[in-house]
């Protein structure tokens, strides 16, 4: 794309983020020209190159609207993180309230305090005797919560098979962010495919093919970053060339 086309494309991405639903654009040339900050004549000249970067939505949530696959993926991840953050904040608030009630209750009776201490010791001993997957229970719960938020499903984090497949990767040093990358990649690839959407489940995503899914997702992310960097580099070169030509023309005018 030319410098003007890249600039118009970036304007459209910015406008798409403010639309409802987010990360989509109206499939209307007049509105698109206004959003791209160009007149209708110039838009007709450049729209073919720019619209190659967008697709027409077929899913119910953005049917008939234009969208960039990468931006839509970022939007979904943003929404999922927002919901997960709110859920964690509510959980922390509830935990604080419970702890406050426990402190009030313990101060009213020394015998009650001793009983609670003994109960906690029993709970700690019971946890120590449980299988090793329990050391990853918090991470497993976060991963399944993110999967549920991304897919709209309600998988349980305490299912034995789910705990085992996830714990196996966590023992090898796999990060929670790696699980999220795979979830985002497969949700993007399978969510609109009726034949594949049923495979958006823990045993499939985190099973024997997890490492392969992770490598593919990382390559996709790296490729997209490289494309953005290249577009920015070209834009900078165009701006520098334009500035050079303007200065050169000024010098020529002075000499004349």
Main attributes of the structure:
2% strand, 2 domains, mainly alpha, 256 residues, single chain, Arc Repressor Mutant, subunit A, three-stranded antiparallel β-sheet
SSE blueprint and pairings:
Layout (H helix, E strand, L loop, with lengths): L2 H16 L5 E2 L3 H7 L4 H12 L3 E2 L9 E2 L1 H40 L1 H20 L7 H15 L8 H12 L4 H15 L11 H4 L4 H46 L1
Antiparallel strand pairs: 1-3, 2-3
Helix pairs in contact: 1-3, 2-3, 4-5, 4-6, 6-8, 8-10
Runs in which pLDDT lies below 50 for 5 or more consecutive residues are none
* Largest beta-sheet details: 3 strands, antiparallel
By secondary-structure content and strand pairing, the structural class works out as mainly alpha
N/C terminus separation: 35 Å
Fraction of helical residues: over 70%
Tell me what portion of residues adopts beta-strand conformation: under 5%
How many β strands by DSSP? Answer: 3
The arrangement of helices and strands along the chain is HEHHEEHHHHHHH
């Amino acid at each position: 794309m030319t410098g003007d086309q890249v600039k118009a494309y970036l304007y459209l991405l910015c406008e798409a983020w403010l639309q409802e639903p987010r990360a989509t654009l109206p499939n209307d040339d007049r509105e698109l020209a206004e959003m791209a900050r160009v007149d209708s004549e110039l838009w007709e000249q450049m729209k073919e190159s720019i619209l190659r970067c967008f697709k027409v939505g077929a899913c119910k949530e953005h049917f008939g609207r234009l969208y960039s696959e990468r931006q839509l993926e970022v939007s979904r991840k943003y929404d999922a993180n927002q919901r997960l953050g709110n859920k964690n904040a509510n959980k922390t608030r509830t935990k604080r309230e419970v702890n406050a009630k426990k402190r009030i209750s313990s101060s009213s009776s020394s015998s009650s305090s001793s009983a609670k201490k003994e109960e906690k010791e029993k709970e700690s001993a019971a946890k120590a005797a449980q299988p090793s997957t329990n050391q990853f229970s918090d991470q497993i719960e976060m991963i399944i919560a993110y999967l549920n938020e991304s897919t709209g499903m309600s998988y349980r984090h305490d299912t034995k098979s789910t705990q085992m497949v996830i714990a196996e990767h966590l023992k090898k040093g796999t990060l929670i962010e790696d699980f999220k990358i795979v979830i985002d990649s497969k949700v993007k690839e399978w969510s609109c495919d009726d034949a594949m959407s049923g495979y958006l489940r823990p045993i499939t995503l985190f099973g024997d093919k997890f490492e392969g899914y992770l490598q593919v997702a990382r390559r996709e992310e790296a490729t997209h970053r490289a494309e953005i960097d290249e577009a920015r580099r070209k834009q900078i070169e165009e701006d520098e060339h334009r500035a050079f030509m303007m200065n050169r023309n000024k010098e020529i005018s002075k000499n004349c």
